[in-house]
Amino acid sequence: MLLPFAIAASVWLARADSAIGVYAARGAVLRIIESSALYLSDESDRSYGPYAMYPSTDTLWVDPRTGVERVVYPGTIQIRSARATFTNGSVASIRAHGGAWMRRAFDPWAVLADWRTDSAVRVAGERVYRDYPRIALTRPGRFGTDTLLLDVETAIPVALIRTEAHYFLGPIHVVYDYETWADVGRRALYPASVTRLVDGQLDESRFYDQYGGGGVLVPVDSAPDLVIPDTTVTLPIDPQHRFAADPLDTVPLGGNTYLLVNKAFTSVVSLQRDTVFVFDSPGGEDRARLEHERVGQLFPGHHATVFVAMNPVWPHIAGLRYWVAHGATIVASRPIVSFLRSVLARRWTELPDEYERVRVQPTIRAVADSALLAGGQVRLYPMDGIEGETVLLAYIAPSRFVWATDHIQDTTSDNLYVREVRQTVAHHELDPVATSGPHFRVIPWTPR
To answer: Does residue 209 sit in the same domain as residue 286?
Structure first.
C-alpha cells in the first residue's frame, strides 16, 4: 500500500475533483449566492481590532471543467480565469485581475481547476492542520510557494496557504480556510463558509445559505455564458493593484503650500522655515515617488523633511516607508506611534521596497497635546471629540489652511466629524480661510 505522500500530485488532485463533485457536475455549472463580511483593518479608526465590517452580496457562477468564474456585483459583471479578468463585457483589466486573483482563492472549485493544469505541482508530505492529518501539495506561486492542503482520508480541500503582496504591509501570509462543506446537488460539495486569514488575523468571511438554495447546480443551457472573451490575453498580477499612481495636479494655496491631487487622493506639501512638511501620503510607494519628485520641483535645494501621519487609516499614509527611506522624520498622534513602528519593522524580503533596500533608523515624534513646528508656522492638534480620536488636525499659519485629513467632505454639511473639526479650530482660536481633505480639492472655510 502506498503511503499518502508517495501518491502523485495529479492523483491527489483527481481525487479532490471527485470528492467535491467536479466530475458529477458535468453538464452543469455551479451557482453560489454568497454573502461576505470584509473586516476593514486598513480603514478603521484604530490600528487594532475590532475593525469596521463591510457586508456585501454577489452571485458567483463556476464552470467545474475550466474553473472560469462569472461574478455579478451591483453594477458590474466579471468574467475571470487564472490568466485574465474581463469587466463588463470584453474589457481586460490589470487592476481588476489583481483583485480577482485574490477572490478566486475563495473558490476551491476554481483553485482545483488552476492546480490540475499546473505541471509544477508536487507532493510535499503530510502535516496536521485543524487537528487532523492533511496532504500538502505545493507549486511556485506569484510571491513564493503556494500550498494546498487536502484531507488525507477524503481528499477534500481544507486550506490554501500562500504569500500575497499588500500595498502597505508588503508580503503577507494568507490562509484561505474551506469549512463546513455542504451538498449543492448531484453529490457535489461546496464550503458553506470560507475565511481569509492575514498574518493570523481574520480578514474576510464568505458564506452562503446552505439551507435556502444559496448553492445549486444549474444546467448549462439555463446558466449565463462562462466564456473568456479573449483567450490570448494573459494579465500580470500587480502587487500594488489597489491604487493607481496617476499623474499629480498641483493646486497652490499660498504661503508655500500646495495640494497634490490625482483621481484617487489629495495630499498636502508645504515649505516652512527650510523644512518640507508632507501631510499624508496616500496610495503607496508609487504615489509617494511622484510626490517626492514634485516636492523637488516646487522646493528646489536641500531641505529637512517631516512626514505627518494624520491618522491610522492605511490608504492615507501608505507612502510612510518611502518617505522614511528618504530621510523624513515622522510625526503622528501618540496612539498610533507603536503601529507605525511595527509597519517599519516589517521585512519586505520577497518584494523589497525602497525602505527595505536602505533600512534607515526611523525617527518618530509623538503628539500628545499639541506640536508647534517651524516656529509655529505649522501647528498640530489632536482632534476634539470621539469621531476624531487618534486623528491630528493641522493648521498652516502662512496659508491660513486647515488639513483635517479624512471624513470631512463639506464644511457646510452638518455631521459629527465636521462639528468636531470646527470645535477643534475654535478651541485653538485658529483663523482658516480654506480647507481640504483626501478625496476633494480646496474649498473655502465658511463661518457657521
So the answer is: no
